[in-house]
Amino acid sequence: MATLNPYEEARLYTTSSEREQWENFATLFSLIVTLDYLELAYVRGGVTEAAYTPACTRLLAQYKTALKLVLGSPSSAALQGRSRPPPVEGLDEFMRMYKMDMPAAHHRLLIGVPATIEHGNNNPSDSRAPNQHNNNGTNHNHNGGPNGGPMPSGRERAKQVAETTQAFITFTDALKLKLRAKDSLHPLLSELVVCYTRSGEGAGSVNEEGRAKMLHWLIKMNQMRASEEIDEEQARQLLFEIEGAYNDWFRSLQDV
């Protein structure tokens, strides 16, 4: 019977390939833990929106890559030993397997965008506090902008509207060109939601309804595999709702 040396590292692998797979699992685990801490820190006011949004966006992008590496691991049928991590089918199975009770991270990974985009919070690109004083002591109110955030300049506002319009057109054109796979539509829809939120969504509850519909489709696609496709009925409904959201948003710009 072999004896164990308590001063030696307990190795889970015997080959470089096995080591790489275990490290991929460890990377995914660490990203989920980090995201959970970030979400809780943001909710408790420990992280500003200006710091939270890019950090969350980066973690979400890293998670997508790490998950692909884990899901791409060889199946158990192709393995003869126990030196490799067990195969998983998705995020839920991974978190259940490793007993990760982290609802904040799970929700953010399910949504696929930062909370500032999901809820349409203040402009995350501006970290200045409201009613901030300039160098000569004059008090400026920055609460007149979209979603209660800082008021953008005329040039910035025009840029936001142009970017949102382009995002709407690009996404609807993709649907009309019969693009149906997640890896084709999800990046375009994600960009549309980001631009729509940054532009301030116009005004009124009608625009909130439009953003809610876009988030619904974003969540739905986020749960699909990259190669999965929406069917023609779903594509038709999605196009109808996106065009409706665009028309409502464009009309509401006159009231801003």
Structural class: mainly alpha
**How would you sum up the major sheet?**
none
- Specify the CATH homologous superfamily of the largest domain: Vps28 C-terminal domain
The first-level CATH class name of the largest domain:
Mainly Alpha
Residue-averaged pLDDT: 82
Low-pLDDT segments: 75-80, 122-144
What is the CATH third-level topology name of the largest domain?
Four Helix Bundle (Hemerythrin (Met), subunit A)
Please state the overall shape, judged from the principal axes of the Cα atoms: elongated
Order of helices and strands: HHHHHHHHH
The proportion of strand residues reads under 5%
User: Helical stretch count?
Assistant: 9
Report helical residue fraction.
Answer: 55-70%
Indicate the radius of gyration in whole angstroms. Answer: 23 Å
How many structurally independent domains? 2
Total strand count, please?
Answer: 0
Q: How far from one another are the termini?
A: 78 Å
CATH architecture of the largest domain: Up-down Bundle
Quick overview of this protein structure:
The chain has about 260 residues and is mostly helical. The chain has helices at about 15-45, 50-70, 90-95, 105-110, 115-120, 155-175, 180-200, 205-220, 230-250.
